[in-house]
Amino acid sequence: MFRGINPLSLDGKGRLSLPAKYRQHLLDEGNGQLVLTIDRDRCLLLYPLPVWEEIERKLIQLSSTNSRARALKRLLLGHAEDCCLDASGRILLPAPLREFANLEKRVVLVGQGNKFEIWSEQGWYAWRESLLAEDQDQHGEPLPDLDTLAF
Question: Which of 11, 4, 79, 67 has its CA nearest to residue 43?
Answer without folding.
Answer: 79
